[in-house]
Amino acid sequence: MTGSRRAVVLLSGGLDSVTAAAIAKEEGFELYALTFNYGQRHTWEIAAAKKLAASLHTADHKIVSLDLTAFGGSALTGSTPVPKQRTSAEMTEDIPVTYVPARNTIFLSVALGWAEVLGAADIFIGVNAIDYSGYPDCRPEFIRAFETMANLATKAGVQNGIRTSIHTPLISMTKAEIIRRGTALGVDYSLTHSCYDPSPLGESCGQCDACLLRLKGFAEAGMQDPIVYIRPVSGPVSD
Predict the structure, then answer these.
(1) CA angle 11, 210, 85 (to 5 degrees)
(2) Rounded to an integer, what distance in angstroms lies between the CA atom of residue 3 and that of residue 17?
(3) Three-class SS state of 167
(4) What's the whole-number mean pLDDT along residues 111-125?
(5) Percent of the residues in the chain that have a pLDDT greater than 70, as a whole number
């Protein structure tokens, strides 16, 4: 069956990905959620993704295993310490060690393959180019280039005339705007996990880039972050 209203949604378990998925659902898409176990430092985000997929009533949720620890090159797939208590300026002056080489390229490629099998022409990803940690594969020019490649590389695009669209509904939104949008759509952010370096019990550290950006977003949105942190935190370090 062709699925003109089917969409593959990349669901990491984090705040951004579930908001993008909720937007796709509001737009009338049937959701096919895709999560990756790629050898990241912890699996709390995968557990979160399972809960979020259930809350979104996805048509299917696949968890695909990839061993990116075979290459390393990132604090998220190796033993390099996760940076803590960085200012917003420090977060964007260089590409951080938490960048996983080619991660979004790999994830989108797998999503593209599943979309082709499903007959789906739409893929949603929660990348953001405003409140982010400087990752090159979160920029609009990367998404445009991947979309062009996708329509040159598939039977669906070349033979069947199905044009794949990569949707990035959050790409120009601040974290506060994302949180407000998701809240309006009924997203339960207590189910999400963003931290790069949580405790063994899954409590967020409150000091890594992901936690600081998340806390900043909730503060600017005038809301309380509903997840549990290891210790009381006051938000990101000022510049």
Answers:
(1) 170
(2) 22
(3) strand
(4) 96
(5) 94
Q: Which amino acid is at 227?
A: I
Token reading at 67: 């061993």
Distance CA 151, CA 165 (A): 9
The tens digit of pLDDT for each residue in 196-218 reads 999 999 999 999 999 999 999 99
Domains, in order of start, for the chain? 3-193 (3.40.50.620)
Per the prediction, the chain carries an average pLDDT of: 91
Cα–Cα distance measured from residue 31 to residue 59, given in angstroms and rounded to the nearest whole number: 6
User: Any idea of the CA torsion for 174, 175, 180, 183, to the nearest 10 degrees?
Assistant: 150
Q: Tokens representing 34?
A: 């895709």
Contacts of 143 (CB under 8 A, 6+ apart): 125, 127, 166, 168, 171
Start-end of H helices in the chain: 15-26, 44-56, 88-93, 103-118, 140-153, 155-158, 175-184, 209-221
By the 10 Å C-beta count (0-12 exposed, 13-18 middle, 19+ buried), 183 is classed as middle
